[in-house]
Design a protein that fits this description.
Blueprint (H helix, E strand, L loop, with lengths): L1 H11 L7 E2 L12 E13 L3 E13 L4 H15 L3 E3 L6 E16 L4 E12 L10 H14 L5 E4 L10 E13 L5 E13 L3 H18 L1 E5 L4 E10 L11 E10 L20
Parallel strand pairs: 1-2, 7-8
Antiparallel strand pairs: 2-3, 3-6, 4-5, 5-6, 8-9, 9-12, 10-11, 11-12
């Protein structure tokens, strides 16, 4: 991932003339401006999000300059990385960068003779997929989402974030699954609690879409699973938490359920019954 970020910055920002350094390389003698690239701690490794880590980019200009040059270089870095799907040239791993904000305040570094600002990025690398798991419930939920939003720019993903996910998009995944005995002996009710991640191009678009989807879930009551066979998913208890992170946590919660037939296990048929009286009775 480090090599992929480095390559992207060099390609997209001619002003740094290929100067992307790591912490041990930084010194007052280095030509400026440059970008200091630092990898932070690993943050997570989940089935649905894959591997993620934090990286910091520090746009650095000479102390004889002013912070307007830092501002300009910082904007170019964010533009080059934020929301971009990249490929590491060494490992060939696909990953996506997301801008997470600044690292503290602006600062002057006398040892390196620069003024600088830290920019934090969350980097997500998808797991290698060995096989595709079919889930008709998630497929139906994604189809309903795209139909409800009615905007071809929006993408809907099921199960996990792909390495090349784009904005705007929605990810649906299962948080828990349970089965409950139905009112009839021959049926069971399957319930799946879903989490929806809504990632917009802006905070306003993201909030409006979360609200619209949750309201539509409340109004829909049922979502088509297979209309030709008259199979539907029942929607219950949709709710929202806008304080949660769109990529890593998800803002929408809802439960989907349907009743299915419970078939008795088939065993060998009994051919005959013999009764032998007890001679001592």
């Amino acid at each position: 991932m480090r090599a992929g970020i480095r390559e992207r910055l060099i390609q997209q920002i001619p002003a740094i003339s290929g100067r992307v350094f790591e912490a041990h390389e930084s010194a007052a003698t280095l030509d400026k401006p440059y970008v200091l690239l630092i990898q932070g701690a690993d943050t997570a490794d989940t089935d649905w999000m894959g591997y993620s880590a934090l990286f910091e980019c520090w746009p650095s200009v000479s102390q004889q300059s002013d912070f307007a040059e830092v501002d300009e270089l910082a904007e170019l870095i964010v533009e080059a990385l934020d929301g971009q799907a990249l490929v590491d040239p060494v490992s060939q791993v696909e990953f996506t960068c997301r801008y997470e904000g600044t690292v503290g305040a602006d600062k002057a570094d006398a040892d390196r003779d620069v003024i600088t600002r830290g920019l934090r990025f969350l980097v997500i690398g998808a797991r290698a997929v060995e096989e595709t798991v079919q889930d008709d419930w998630l497929d139906a939920l994604c189809d309903w989402t795209q139909s409800t939003l009615g905007d071809p720019d929006w993408q809907a993903y099921g199960g996990k974030w792909p390495a090349n996910y784009t904005r705007p998009s929605v990810l649906w995944r299962w948080d828990s699954i349970e089965t409950i005995a139905g009112s009839r002996v021959s049926t069971i009710e399957v319930r799946k609690r879903a989490i929806g991640h809504v990632l917009g191009r802006s905070v306003n678009e993201q909030t409006m879409t979360v609200t619209a989807l949750t309201q539509s879930l409340s109004e829909a009551v049922k979502i088509p699973l297979n209309p030709l066979e008259r199979r539907y998913l029942t929607v219950s208890a949709p709710n929202v938490d806008l304080t949660r992170d769109a990529v890593t946590e998800g803002q929408i919660y809802a439960t989907f359920s349907r009743k299915v037939e419970r078939y008795a296990e088939q065993g060998p048929l009994m051919r005959e019954v013999k009764i032998q009286p007890n001679p001592n009775s």
